[in-house]
Amino acid sequence: MAIVRPNLDQLQDLASRLHMRLTSEQASEYLALMQSSFDAYDLVDELPDEVPEVRYPRSAGYRPSGDENPCNAWYYRTEVQGSAEGKLAGRTVALKDNVALAGVPMMNGASTLEGFVPSFDATVVTRLLDAGATILGKATCEHFCLSGGSHTSDPEPVHNPRRHGYAAGGSSSGSAALVAAGAVDMAIGGDQGGSIRIPSAFCGTYGMKPTHGLVPYTGVMPIEATIDHVGPITANVRDNALMLEVLAGADGLDPRQYAPPVDAYSEALGRGVEGLKIGILSEGFHLANLDPRVADKVREGIARLERLGAVVSEVSVAEHGLAGSLWHPIGCEGLTVQMMHGNGMGFNWKGLYDVGLLDKHVGWRNSADALSASLKLCMLVGQYGLERYNGRYYAKAQNLARRARAGYDQALDRYDLLVMPTVPITAQPLPALGCPVTENVTRALEMIGNTTPLDVTGHPAMSVPCGQLDGLPVGLMLVGRHFAESTIYQAAAAFEAAGDWQTF
């Protein structure tokens, strides 16, 4: 069918929004000249979209409630059986609800997206199913993934399975909660500011944020392409490594990927840590809100690695704080342009676009008051930077990100791994519904001090449970060189084998 053509009045109004002044005669000429372009639009409109084939049968499923969903960790339940054999045969998986699963609703934690149903599977979904996994549904996530707490998901918060009424962490809140509760063996999470590692630390799971670009983001709703990561959350190290083996590698559809090298990650699990050089990142212990009990528990974990044979010493990376600061202009201005003004997709990249998502997400403008407080804050910061300073701070922050990465790289030239607390606190009580904006936002962002820097620099980082405080998990974060996930798994597996972390 033909697209709708503008009339003269509409064209002049359009020109004025582009800061042009056209006379009626000029507008008429331009309108005639535009018709050949619109003919091309008609052709595009007539052709079928180029999207991947859906190869595994499934039903739309249903939204569970009550006793079937005690932590509100499930958004939708369904069952998609993968291949009869493969590395993940017999394993069950939950997908963060920003991951496209064809035919099954996807809300990304936000009421403004409710009713959207993807038409194709994300690359990570296809790879999981090809490897024999069974997908059991979509895990609740935070409102457009803009919270490290678990109180911003619509319509209600996600509870920590280890203590009801406490945060599960975010934004992959349901993913970590379902793994910790034993409802699934593994889950897909996403990480732009810590959203795999934070809920893993709060819930006591193993959460790997891979090197930027190692795992294709194709079919996952983006926030900002330069900090978008997707990766595994599991109950043990072996499952995590096996899952990453399945997920890693280029798919030819994601511009975040630069022919990433992949590895047989599970082969690193029995190597031990004898002689492994681990640097204790001083700045990671200097966060203003670091609970000293968390610091002590992480240091106990580091001492355990040292007793296992690792060579441990203190190291400073002054750029740790810089990278955390760079996250604000990159994240806020970037998400405002790509996820919000760009209707969930943005422009100027080659790859697989979700046209249906773009069509649905445009509706946020009609319900902007319903956006979460933390997303509104980021949008206000981002829009101000774009309008007042023309995006120069986004651009400069991206330039400075190379310096930040170099700071970590220099330390990782001397050490095999860096270590620090994943988050400065344990899971906190969920804030009350309708709490003041300041409390809402504070509880959404209070835990990101050590996680955001690694999203800016792209280094792989994994949260490993290392003990408990008052029955709530503590996370220890291991950071490696780009594409050195195997080294992280090597240390994580040795730590896991040293004893039950819940008794530490």
Name the descriptors.
504 residues, Amidase signature (AS) enzymes, 2 domains, eleven-stranded mixed sheet, 13 strands, 36% helix, 15% strand, Amidase_dom
List the helices and strands and how they pair.
Elements: H1 8-17, H2 24-46, E1 74-81, E2 92-96, H3 123-130, E3 134-139, E4 159-160, E5 163-167, H4 173-180, E6 186-191, H5 197-203, E7 206-209, E8 229-234, H6 237-247, E9 277-281, H7 292-307, E10 311-315, H8 319-341, H9 355-361, H10 373-389, H11 392-414, E11 417-421, H12 437-445, H13 452-457, E12 461-469, E13 472-479, H14 485-497
Helix pairs in contact: 8-10, 8-11
Mean pLDDT: 98
β content, as a range?
5-15%
- The main sheet orders its strands as 1-3-2-6-8-7-12-13-11-9-10
**Rounded Rg:** 23 Å
Give the class-level CATH name of the largest domain. Answer: Alpha Beta
The total beta strand count reads 13
Describe this structure in words.
InterPro entries: Amidase (IPR000120), Amidase_CS (IPR020556), Amidase_dom (IPR023631), AS_sf (IPR036928). Residues 79-488 form the Amidase domain. The chain contains 14 helices and 13 strands. It has two domains: 8-46, no CATH class; 66-503, Amidase signature (AS) domain (Amidase signature (AS) enzymes, Alpha-Beta Complex). Strand 2 (92-96), helix 3 (123-130) and strand 3 form a beta-alpha-beta unit. Helix 8 packs across helix 10 and helix 8 crosses helix 11 (392-414). The strands form two sheets. Strands 1-3-2-6-8-7-12-13-11-9-10 form an eleven-stranded mixed sheet, sandwiched between helices. Helix content is 36%, strand content 15%.
